[in-house]
Amino acid sequence: MKYITFLLILLALLSSGCSTQTASPLVHKIPSHCKKYYDMKQARCIDEKTFIDTIEPYRVVFFGDHHNKKDLHKKFATLLNKLQERNIYLANEWFTPADNERLELYTSSKTDKDFVHLLNWRRSYGRDYTSYRPIYEAVKKNNGRLFGINMTQGLRKKISRANMNLLTKEQRHFYKTLDLNIYAHQSLLSPFFSSCHTNNFSISEKECIQRMYRVQVAWDTYMAQNSYAIATQHLNSKKDLLIIFAGSMHMLYGLGINTRFARLTNEPFVTVIPVHQNITQAEVGAADFLIFYDNHK
After folding, report:
1. Count of domains in the chain?
2. Nearest residue to 252 via CA among 237, 279, 229, 274
3. Is residue 203 part of a domain?
4. d(Cα 267, Cα 140) in Å, to the nearest integer?
5. Is residue 72 a contact partner of residue 293, using CB atoms and an 8 Å limit?
6. What is the pLDDT of residues 74-114, one digit of tens each?
7. Looking at residue 256, which CATH number applies to its domain?
8. Is residue 268 part of a domain?
9. How far apart are CA 240 and CA 144, in angstroms?
10. Each residue's pLDDT tens digit, 18-28
11. What is the pTM of this model?
């Protein structure tokens, strides 16, 4: 009996000790010679041609952005120019569906000199247009189309306040369908909510965090639904290619726009996330592919 008691105590201590340990994430060791792409499914460095050949069967690609990183945007534009055999539909985070008519005017015209004014770029987007210009020129050059998928700032504010009286019938239905219970998604974003309460003392910290997360989920869901609508309307052949171009946090680990897009369709897709070219490791599951860029250019 003494021995049994001793073993039970020992097992309890061992169990307690194990429960306090934090498991290290599984990572890919990135070779120093990786300068183009890294295939996370096959754990290998690949060049641009191999990447293009690998994604050839897919009609939907999620491509993450690091805003105003010119070297990344240059490489993305180069990729778009090499996809001449595909009919490219670029769904862009910083435009809304209300911009689609003006975006079509841009892609169908012979000049882009009025693009900044056409979309009121500086006031609406606040990013360096010269950084993104090669991307839009590549889409236009190859007879592609541009689409907006973002929700308006006004709708985001209404979602944040969760006041049903401020929402239309359609918006209330959208609000009620939001999935706020993906724990991995919450954990991914939680570090960004740490200073939530510092700028708003009219509500509690808990309510502030809830508001921020609710808006993030609404944001991702709205962009997923608009991407699905574009896919439904325009993906009619194997040559058609929808690229959802948004901030990488909206698609990292497949937890944002992409997971909500997957709930709407069985269309296969891949996710490409940008990383600095000097990284030495990347967590398993972060994306299907990594694209490397020089953070100093």
Report:
1. 1
2. 274
3. no
4. 25
5. yes
6. 999 999 999 989 999 999 999 999 999 989 988 988 666 66
7. 3.40.50.11550
8. yes
9. 10
10. 445 566 789 99
11. 0.88
Q: Residues 136, 112: contact at Cβ < 8 Å?
A: yes
pLDDT of 6-62, one tens digit each? 444 444 444 444 445 566 789 999 999 999 999 999 999 999 999 999 999 999 999
Q: What share of the chain is helix, strand, coil (3-state, %, to 5)?
A: 50, 15, 35
The neighbouring-strand residues paired with 243 are 61, 90
The H or E element that residue 27 is part of is: strand 27-29
Residues 280 and 273: their CA atoms lie apart, in Å, by 15
Backbone phi, psi, residue 283, to 5°:
-70, 140
Are the beta carbons of 84 and 101 closer than 8 angstroms? no
Q: Which residues, other chains included, contact 101 with Cβ-Cβ below 8 Å and sequence gap of 6+? A: none
User: Biggest alpha carbon distance in the chain?
Assistant: 90
Contact 215, 154 (CB under 8 A): no
- Is residue 69 in a domain? yes
> Alpha helices, DSSP H only, in the chain?
2-19, 48-55, 70-81, 100-108, 115-118, 121-125, 129-141, 153-161, 169-176, 183-189, 205-234, 257-262
Q: What is the pLDDT of residues 117-141, one digit of tens each?
A: 777 776 677 788 889 999 999 999 9
Enclosing domain of residue 120:
39-149+240-293
